[in-house]
Design goal:
Structural class: alpha+beta
Largest sheet: 15 strands, antiparallel
Oligomer: single chain
Number of helices: 13
Number of strands: 28
Shape: globular
């Protein structure tokens, strides 16, 4: 059986990341980038698809305890067995010549028999490499990929895997270093495991020390910031939505997507979390990635891009992988890249407006790009689209999409009025007000006192919780309060928020996909924010603390939570969930929400 998603921890070098289970197995790792082919893909198949396990021989496979070393991304996993106690330290040093993963086995007490099993399978578990020993190192090659393993103990091959059997006593240290490089190049200079451990710890502690958050939830906020940093592709500043592909939203179902890309919908919330937590450098890098990614014709704006801004993210299946807990298909790439989602125009313009207010947008030429995007949107905001949740059914006039089109026009008007930038402010103001009137007329159900998922629909949608947060209407507007109450009444399961209604008994839901999904954690954080905004602060804090309790033992969250089976579902760890956690903690701690400017109240239409 697959290990529960919450059994995993993440280590990374800010260009890729590995998932390590409580049983000491690295079951997911892509070299050299987040979106490269995996050399360990047991997470989406079985052990034959690649893994690297280090743990005591015999006894319980699950560790007694584990934790990150202080405010770092260095994972320590400890076992207690009849023979004694042992610790495995896992980390990835910040990259120099090549990506490395370092595993150090430390004896704590007694004398513990250990085993390392390295089963490399390139191209998502499909390709068995040619393995040989060269100068006491293990070299594995297949096509473009080469991996070298150095260790302090003897290794041997069996059943297309590399093993090491050894024992550790108190204060013993056994080091393993796995290094990837392009197979046509000579191997990189080996790194010293102990030196890299000290260097990596120093760097992570220095980075964590920059945090300006000072409140009752410092630990979960800082762990979320570290997770966000781990999901950052440092060469470009892009931040991937998650480290994984195809972890299912519905166990055993087909709602399995590749999240190793950068979504524009995350832009403003990401910038807000970084700026308000003291990480202006990361916020500026993300903003510059955003500008490069969206450059070009406004009609070609995509909802997501690769970590370097790549546009072609072709979706295809990997039929040789059985899927996590038999959830098929396993997908690489994401067909949603071809969808029209009008809300991304609002996210881009809002994010750049936030950067402008924070002094992180020094390039005047970026305004000319924004003006072109705004001009395009002013002619196309009426269009139907697939919406924020990327439904694979017919296009609709989604209310949230129209609200975010209003956001784009509103921020454009402010840019001219407050910053003296050039643009047809009269036209933009007229379009802004027209969108507002249409949303209030067509996206609002007066009989039920709630905004609806799309014009003419009776369904509610968790994205409507953002209406007061983006400043479309003030929090105390009766329509906003009614919408919050409708979301609580119609979309919550065990107190947690679904994105939209699902047809649990039907073959195909309202989103064009079969099956259902778990509750969406980011949306539940939004509900906590809204409850605080309408004065229900105790309810907001209770809900926020409930969400904190859903984190796994090392403080990580997936995309969703299934209250029926009380387990995490969806890709992991999920940037959107951790971004929402940070912003909610800042909000509940008394900081003014960045996205809503009370000095620019929306019209009361």
């Amino acid at each position: 059986m697959a290990a529960p998603i919450e059994d995993y921890a993440i280590v990374g070098d800010m260009q890729t990341a590995a998932l390590v289970s409580r049983s000491g197995s690295i079951d997911w790792l892509c070299f050299p980038r987040f979106d490269s082919g995996a050399c360990f893909a047991a997470l989406l198949g079985d052990d034959d698809n690649g893994h690297w396990t280090i743990r005591p021989r015999g006894g319980s496979a699950r560790a007694a305890r584990r934790h990150y070393r202080g405010d770092t991304l260095i994972l320590e996993t400890e076992w207690e067995v009849p023979e004694g106690a042992v610790r495995v330290i896992d980390f990835m040093p910040p990259r120099d010549q090549a990506p490395d993963i370092v595993r150090i086995v430390e004896g704590v007490s007694g004398r513990v028999p250990m085993r390392s099993c390295l089963r490399l399978r390139f191209d998502y578990g499909a390709v068995v490499p040619w393995v040989r020993k060269i100068d006491q190192q293990v070299a594995a090659v297949a096509g473009p990929d080469a991996v070298w393993l150095r260790s302090d103990v003897h290794t041997y091959g069996r059943d297309f895997a590399t093993y090491a059997d050894f024992e550790v006593s108190a204060n013993d240290r056994v080091r393993f270093v796995l290094t990837w490089h392009p197979s046509h190049l000579p191997p990189p200079t080996p790194v010293d495991a102990d030196e890299e451990l000290a260097h990596t710890e120093e760097l992570w502690k220095a980075w964590s020390g920059q945090s300006t958050f000072d409140g009752p939830w410092r630990e979960p906020v800082l762990r979320s910031l570290l997770t966000l940093k781990a999901l950052t592709y440092e060469p470009t500043g892009g931040i991937v939505a998650a480290a994984t592909t195809s972890l299912p939203e519905d166990i055993g179902g087909s709602r399995n997507w590749d999240y190793r890309y950068c979504w524009l919908r995350d832009a403003t919330m990401t910038l807000s979390a970084l700026i308000r937590s003291g990480y202006d450098q990361e916020a500026a890098a993300w903003g510059q990635w955003l500008l490069r990614a969206v450059a070009g014709s406004p009609a070609d704006l995509q909802i997501m891009y690769g970590v370097a801004g790549e546009r072609r993210l072709l979706e295809y299946d990997l039929p040789w992988l059985s899927g996590y807990d038999d959830s098929r298909p396993v997908r690489v790439g994401n067909k949603a890249v071809d969808q029209l989602q009008l809300d991304v125009y609002g996210e881009v313009i809002d994010a750049l407006a936030l950067a402008r207010r924070a002094g992180l947008d020094p390039h005047e030429e970026s305004w000319s790009l924004q003006a072109v995007l705004i001009s395009h949107l002013s002619e196309h905001w009426h269009d139907r689209d697939e919406g924020i949740w990327e439904v694979r059914g017919p296009r609709r006039p989604f209310t949230h999409s129209k609200v975010m089109a209003w956001v784009a026009m509103d921020r454009a008007v402010r840019a001219v009025e407050d910053y003296g930038l050039r643009g047809p402010v009269g036209k933009w103001r007229a379009v802004r007000d027209e969108i507002h009137r249409e949303v209030c007329a067509k996206g609002y159900d007066a009989d039920r006192n709630t905004f609806t998922q799309s014009f003419g629909s009776r369904d509610v949608d968790a994205a409507l919780l953002l209406i007061p947060q983006v400043g479309f209407l003030p929090p105390d507007d009766p329509r906003v309060v009614g919408t919050i109450e409708a979301v609580q009444r119609e979309l919550t399961r065990d107190g947690l928020v679904m994105r939209y209604p699902s047809d649990e008994g039907g073959e195909r839901g309202s989103d064009g996909m079969p099956g259902t999904e778990g509750t969406f954690l980011a949306c539940t954080f939004w509900l906590a924010d809204d409850l605080a905004m309408i004065g229900r602060k105790r309810d907001a804090r209770d809900l926020f603390c409930r969400l904190l309790d859903l984190r796994n033992d090392v403080g990580l969250l997936a995309e969703e939570y299934d209250p029926r089976h009380r387990r995490m579902v969806g890709n992991f760890p999920q940037a959107y969930s951790h971004i929402a956690l940070i912003n909610s903690a800042l909000h509940l701690n008394g900081a003014t929400p960045v996205r809503c400017d009370p000095n620019h109240a929306a019209p009361a239409a």
